[in-house]
Amino acid sequence: VRIRVGVDVVGVERLERLVRDDEDRQRELFTQRELDYCSGKRRQYEHMAVRFAAKEAVLKAMGLGLGACGWREIEVTRAESGVPSIVLHGRARALADERGIRSWRLTMTHTHRLAEAIAVAL
Amino acid sequence: MADVDSAVKEAVVEALALDDDEVTPESTLMDDLGAESIDLLDILFRIEKSTGVKIEASDLGDYMQGGIPDDEFSDENEIITEKGAEHLKTGMPQVDPGELAGTLKAEEVITLFTVQNLVEMVKKRGDGAG
To answer: What is the pTM of this model?
Structure first.
């Protein structure tokens, strides 16, 4: 089994400046489920930033650069247990299928300044 | 629409906190100017605000790949094929397909994207042709 790893870190303030109070931009980057999750959090922009980092980490794990698919096609989900995971849609899913990727593991961490994600494709 | 050349340059200068003379049409956004993904997002948002032309990150990929199916654009090792490299020249005339085919990784294509490539893309979009 080929294991692929991607990592990314995002400045929380930077992401917040780009999308704060701008629903169109938020909807460009995040699915409705992701936005619903983040908006319920006290530090919602930390949660958005770490999701953005996760999307980037997934692209890197697949050996792809920015623009290979839409941001919403890579979705961060959470199991009831709280474990985060990745669900791919549309082109992102096709790109993963082409690479024989069957599942993902995702770990994320964030402070008020930095948000980091590591994605592992199996 | 605002002058696209200057609108793009201004977006790049401001998003990356650079001096005016550091940004030339030939500068590659990522390698030469040090842009990260979030910087590109910032640049695209600024361009939309000043020109009204909306470009999503995935449009960049479509522009560079030129409609070639993914499995024909790069091989199983994620290396750009001859056909893919030839097509890159359409959106990025500065690239040399002969030099890139068989060596360039798919993830590295975006690193070749220049300020001028972005200008041309915004112009095409603004004309409704992109």
So the answer is: 0.89
ipTM comes to 0.85
Residue of A18, A55, A66 to mutate for B, most B C-beta atoms under 10 A? A66
Give B11-36 pLDDT, tens digit per residue: 999 999 999 999 999 999 999 999 99
How far apart CA A122 and CA B104 sit, in angstroms, is: 24
Q: In the block, which residue shows the tokens 């931009």?
A: A25
- Annotate B40-78 with b (16+ C-beta within 10 A) or e (fewer): bbbbbbbbbebbebebbbbbbbbbbbeebebeebbeeeb
DSSP states of A29-60: HS-HHHHHHHHTSTTHHHHHHHHHHHHHHHHH
Answer whether A98 sits within 8 Å of B70, measured CB to CB: yes
